[in-house]
Amino acid sequence: RTAQQTAGYQALADRTGEGPASLLAKMDDPEALEEALSDGQGEVMMRTAYSELIELPSANRAYETFFRSLTETGSVPALFHCTTGKDRTGWAAAATLLFLGVSEDDVYHDYLQTNEQLWPALQPYLEDFASAGGDPEILRPVLGVDRSYLATAIDLMLEKYGSIDGYMREGLGLDDGTLVELRELMLVG
Question: Of 3, 78, 91, 141, which is the most buried if we count CB atoms within 10 A?
Answer without folding.
Answer: 91
